[in-house]
Write a structure and sequence with these properties.
With 275 residues, the chain is mainly α. 61% of the residues lie in helices and 0% in strands. Helix 7 packs parallel to helix 8.
């Protein structure tokens, strides 16, 4: 008996009637979903980079929605685990830019015409992540009107309080003050001095407000990784296309740099300067 046969002895070899690894994961459709429109070698990298990013965002949405519900149910500790996982998902997404940056401007130019007007700016999952976190620009819903499923899901999200609004509601409840979370909104969250003052109470006395303190830090950690993702996006695009306009019609790097200024949980950042 060979070394391989000895090591694999007892392993199931016939899956004609049973579920295999590929069956469970649905690998057939996934691995057959890459269809380059040019003969350029690097188009495959571009497609897989964005497809895998969408898969990670799907998981991020799954975790964020569950974390929000857990917070609403008063179960903070399970939510902390989920928020930590989302931060690590964005760490994975950050690492993916390193792979895409191996592509040079000349290599990208070889297949860029194949993209037409398609752009990551049109990703409904990325928009959903932003909406859940609280960066809600209702006007961008127009981008998704042509896809009913995506449009309906985004519309439904705008009817829910954002993750941050839920966190603020918990903050107010625990500190026994009237809620400052506000109603669900279709615009981005604006910094509120009263909310910042409440977070300051938490940071000044973490031992007596430990769960709120931990919630605040989980949110900051998440936004930290999210900001890094945005920054890496900017530098990757600038490295590959310079200051050309994006395929979707945006100002490209100029637009992405503007997005770096967006604060998802502004009071949690501003309070640091007040301590």
């Amino acid at each position: 008996m060979s070394e391989f046969e000895s090591a694999s002895q007892g392993a199931k070899m016939d899956f004609s009637k049973d579920m295999s690894y590929g069956d469970y994961l649905g690998l057939g459709p996934i691995l057959d979903a890459q269809h380059p429109l040019s003969q350029a070698h690097d188009e495959m990298l571009f497609i897989i980079q964005h497809q895998t990013s969408e898969l990670w965002m799907r998981l991020a949405i799954h975790e964020l929605e569950a974390a929000r519900q857990s917070l609403r149910d008063g179960h903070l500790r399970p939510a902390f685990k989920m928020l930590t996982r989302v931060a690590r998902i964005f760490e994975q997404l950050n690492a993916a830019w390193d792979v895409l940056r191996t592509m040079t401007p000349s290599e990208y130019t070889a297949f860029r015409p194949s993209l037409g007007n398609s752009s990551g700016f049109q990703s409904h999952q990325y928009r959903l992540v932003e909406y859940i976190l609280g960066n809600r620009i209702g006007a961008l819903m127009k981008l998704h009107k042509h896809t009913k499923t995506a449009y309906d899901r985004l519309s439904h999200e705008l009817e829910q309080p954002s993750l941050y609004q839920v966190a603020i509601a918990i903050l107010c409840e625990r500190l026994e003050v009237p809620s400052l979370a506000g109603a669900p909104q279709s615009q981005d969250w604006q910094a509120n001095p009263e909310v910042q003052a409440l977070w300051q109470l938490v940071y000044q006395d973490p031992q007596n407000h430990w769960e709120l303190y931990e919630l605040a830090e989980k949110l900051v950690d998440l936004e930290d990784y999210f900001r890094r993702w945005r920054f890496n996006h900017v530098t990757t695009v600038e490295r590959i296309i310079g200051f050309k306009r994006g395929t979707g019609g945006t100002a490209g790097v100029a637009y992405l740099r503007k997005m770096l200024e967006v604060e998802l949980f502004p009071e949690l950042w501003h309070v640091r300067g007040a301590l």
